[in-house]
């Protein structure tokens, strides 16, 4: 199916990337973009910057880089802004996060110091382990949203940016499922006026950003963007949204290994995953209510990939457990262990062990960059509401109501690349390949 000939508004001027939450991931992204555009480091892990895309037949030899195929904003044209409940500028915050070497931080220190967070919309009951001072006072949650909207307008005027996108890089909030308040735009606005306790901090940013017509993605596992009222608003104002929970370490592994087991009809008796990490994210997840948000997000993956209802003999009894342990000595250098008890021909048991010594923010930063650039592209292409084609980046991909999410990384990648082809009016690639043999 070729795309209709709807034009893509060209990129021009500056693109602002607005980051609610300027901690480890956000500052690693900002510093990384600054280093990459000076040629001091490479944006490894970013599909938009590093990957290619095949167009047409394998014999056509048309394989441009993604960034040369779709009209993305170049790194040179990005400006950064954000909010945090700690007043540290991006230089101090990056030093505090201890993700990047001093040499990398020092090389862009002056530029980083220019990025100062705006004060946060923060009610502490949604993130119990944090106590910051750089916070707004408001008479109601509706007033809080208005203050955030004023921040956005001020930032756009001061920075001279042409347009903006936002990616939530703030802490994981306590688990609150959407309620009747989240059902419609009217009920949500009433809830804002009444400061309804089921409206968390992240949802205040969502409302403010969507009202300002800014595309938005949610990197954390809480229901920041995926609630019906936000979807209604996004469609009404013509803005794309995506989420949730960056797929970086252990879940990335899971969405590669589990489809492999299923593809080969191998059984799975149990999968035990445990992590140790010592950054601020780990500290926040040490609170059982915040961990619950993460646990729900991580557990859903296997259920959807393995489809035990269709494969009861292979996955009907799978025991799945996920633990995250806060262990300060490791900082951002997380270690994720997975033990898989699998079974094969005639039911004979086998085991797979994975020990991933990863760096959380190093894996997350390129995802934030890609999401920002692709959401901006989607916006300029007239796409609005939930962008399921960005599932590639999420532990819990948002979908249309009634659709189960697709978790298999390579199906997600195919979907993403086919969507880029579709946006540009190229034929999608089905991998049928009959034409080479007929
Ligand atoms: N790094 C990864 O691999 C990864 C993967 C999946 C999800 N995530 C999620 O990404 C988010 C960021 O991770 P991180 O390691 O940078 O965490 P971090 O703790 O270093 O940074 C989060 C920042 O958000 C700020 N914050 C919290 N509530 C806020 C609010 N209401 N307004 C403004 N600022 C607020 C905190 O003060 C903190 O500085 C977390 O929710 C984490 O769970 C990270």
Topology:
Elements (H helix, E strand, L loop, with lengths): L14 E6 L3 H14 L9 H4 L15 H4 L8 E7 L5 H8 L4 H6 L1 H5 L4 E2 L21 H19 L3 E6 L16 H9 L7 H11 L4 E3 L9 H10 L2 E4 L6 H14 L3 E11 L2 H6 L2 H19 L5 H4 L3 E8 L8 E9 L5 E9 L2 H21 L4 E2 L22 H15 L15
Parallel strand pairs: 1-2, 1-4, 2-3, 4-5, 5-6, 6-11, 7-8
Antiparallel strand pairs: 7-9, 9-10
Bound molecules: nicotinamide-adenine-dinucleotide.
Kindly describe this structure:
The protein is an alpha/beta fold and 438 residues long. It has two domains: 15-246 and 362-423, NAD(P)-binding Rossmann-like Domain (Rossmann fold, 3-Layer(aba) Sandwich); 250-357, Dihydrodipicolinate Reductase, domain 2. It contains 16 helices and eleven strands. The protein has helices spanning 24-37, 47-50, 66-69, 90-97, 102-107, 109-113, 141-159, 185-193, 201-211, 228-237, 250-263, 280-285, 288-306, 312-315, 360-380, 409-423, and strands spanning 15-20, 78-84, 118-119, 163-168, 216-218, 240-243, 267-277, 319-326, 335-343, 349-357, 385-386. Strands 3-2-1-4-5-6-11 form a seven-stranded parallel sheet, sandwiched between helices. Strands 8-7-9-10 form a four-stranded mixed sheet. β9 and β10 form a beta hairpin. α1 (24-37) crosses α15 (360-380). It is globular, with a radius of gyration of 22 Å. The mean pLDDT is 94. Bound molecules: nicotinamide-adenine-dinucleotide (NAD). The site of nicotinamide-adenine-dinucleotide (NAD) has 37 residues, from α1, β2, α12 and α15.
